[in-house]
Design a protein that fits this description.
six-stranded antiparallel β-barrel, hydrolase activity, 507 residues, alpha+beta, 18% helix, PDZ, serine protease, globular, 13 helices, Thrombin, subunit H, Pdz3 Domain
């Protein structure tokens, strides 16, 4: 479960200890999107008398997804941080090799073609960035199991496409038009919560485009009160015609369980991305290079702007698409390529869905005047690159360790580090030509923590040698160990202070 915002947003992934439970056998084994059949199943007016016929037709295409991953675990000193930390001796500890452990995940998915392509959430098949995916098992409602391959995954939209390794013909379902959904419409969710097998819940649509406040280009969900729980991730949300209008993704909950506020990725967002992943195409998204915030009531009043309109530009990346177009910090962007920027249709969402290289008009409000500039949309960096760019408020703790860090450096020095970039240099208040490694996190039980090293410090040199990459520092640490040295001399630059040398003991 991942905590994202507010009370709790829990990605609906089964735990590592969950056991796959086969659902009850289903009768229908053919594609289930014949409109004439659906018309007979569900009355056009009023609530359906039962969801049984609809479920019987759709459930054969909803599958359970189990994965097996291998995670490398570094050896730990149980006495670290105590006077007995050196009880076993540093050399004995160095001889310990990393061990591996097996992890599992459990989720849901649905088949979208007769030859066995399956859609699910990315976090179902990639639950831990430290893990190596080794096996994917698809279980049909009748209990039949198949191996599957990962065709493509997209972390930004949290979508993945799998392919079942079989030549048989599979039942399948199709995407519908989520834009036609309305608050109050009946919906049905089918999935695998808590490893119980095929489980069906019903409810209504609460909102078609719900912005949860968690940020990002795809913070735009169908909200429903249909019960959604752990293990429902990647399962379909159906309308009454049997079309997939959403992919169950997350819940808003103070306890981690369903409280009637569930979120599904709208089909109109998911379907084009799924098509690209299935075709093996790279997912390219537009990017302006700005950090933004919504226009709240106070900001709107201070600027004389309508409420619920536009987004305020806090910072502009140097030499990015917005910077080259003349957008400045303090501007309020009100339209992107002729489309209004609102809470339901954010700037990030609009720009992400524009092909990089496209020239677009951008309407904005500056110094009491409305202006229009033209920007050439850039290419959105990867999620890892974005995390690195955004992580360095030195006073803030990172939500998770930077993925560019080095396990060897963390083991030997108790530091998580990543290379310096121009963006991080600006955030740390140093010249963009500064070279070195940036400390992302410090183990308080390591000597580096006891010596006062902290997040946002820049390592300029090690043992008087300049460093620009993680490999540079790893090589220096390795040289020190071969020379039987028990410490490395680091030159540390901290914002607002002169650089100083700090000797950090290896562990």
């Amino acid at each position: 479960m991942r905590y994202v915002y507010g009370l709790t947003t829990a990605l609906l992934l089964g735990g590592a200890t969950a056991t796959l439970v086969t659902g009850y056998p289903a009768g229908a084994q053919v594609a289930q999107n014949d409109e004439s059949q659906m018309a007979r199943v569900v009355p056009r007016d009023g609530a359906p008398e039962s969801f049984a016929d609809l479920t019987a037709q759709l459930q054969p295409a909803v599958v359970n997804i189990a994965t097996r991953q291998r995670i490398e675990v570094q050896p730990n000193n149980p006495f670290a941080g105590t006077p007995f930390a050196d009880l076993f001796g540093r050399r004995n500890q160095q001889q310990q090799q990393p061990t591996t452990r097996e992890a599992q995940s459990l989720g849901s998915g649905f088949i979208i073609s007769s030859d066995g392509y399956v859609v699910t959430n990315n976090h179902v098949v990639s639950p831990d960035n430290r893990a190596t995916l080794e096996e994917i098992t698809i279980t049909m409602p009748d209990g039949t199991e198949y191996d599957a391959d990962l065709v493509g995954a997209d972390a930004a939209s949290d979508l993945a496409v799998l392919k079942i390794n079989s030549n048989r013909t599979f039942p399948f379902v199709k995407f519908g038009d989520s834009s036609k959904a309305r608050p109050g419409d009946w919906v049905v969710a089918i999935g695998n919560p808590f490893g119980l097998g095929g489980t069906v819940t019903s409810g209504i649509v609460s909102a078609v485009y719900r912005n949860t406040g968690s940020g990002g280009a795809y913070d735009r969900y169908i909200q429903t009160d249909a019960s959604i729980n752990r293990g429902n991730s990647g399962g379909p949300l159906f309308d009454m015609q049997g079309n997939v209008i959403g992919i169950n993704n997350a819940i808003f909950s103070p306890s981690g369980g369903s409280v009637g506020i569930g979120f599904a990725i709208p089909a109109e967002i998911a379907a084009p991305i799924v098509d690209q992943l299935r075709a093996g195409e790279e997912i390219e998204r537009g990017f302006l290079g700005v950090s933004i915030q919504p226009v709240n009531d106070d900001l709107a009043d201070s600027l004389g702007l309508p409420r619920n309109r536009g987004e305020f530009v806090q910072t502009v990346q140097s030499d990015g698409a917005a910077d080259r177009a003349g957008i400045r910090a303090g501007d309020v962007v009100t339209k992107i390529n002729g489309q209004d920027v609102t809470s339901d249709q954010t700037l990030s969402f609009l720009v992400a869905n524009i092909k990089p290289g496209t020239r677009i008009p951008i309407e904005l409000y500056r110094d009491g005047q409305r202006r229009t500039v033209t920007a050439t949309v850039g290419k959105r960096p990867s999620e890892n690159e974005l995390r690195q760019q955004q992580m360095f408020d030195p006073d803030a703790e990172p939500d998770q360790a930077p993925e560019a860090d080095s396990g060897a450096i963390e083991d030997k020095l108790g530091l998580q580090v990543l290379p310096m970039t121009a963006q991080i240099a600006r955030q740390l208040g140093v010249g963009e030509d500064t070279t070195g490694l940036v400390i992302g996190a410090v183990d308080p039980n390591a000597d580096a923590g006891r010596k006062g090293l902290q997040r946002g410090d820049i390592i300029l040199t090690a043992n008087y040698r300049e460093i620009a990459t993680i490999e540079d520092l790893e090589a220096i640490v390795a040289d020190a160990e071969r020379a039987d040295r028990e410490a490395v001399l680091l030159r540390i630059q901290r914002r607002g202070r002169p650089a100083q040398y700090v000797a950090v003991r290896l562990r």
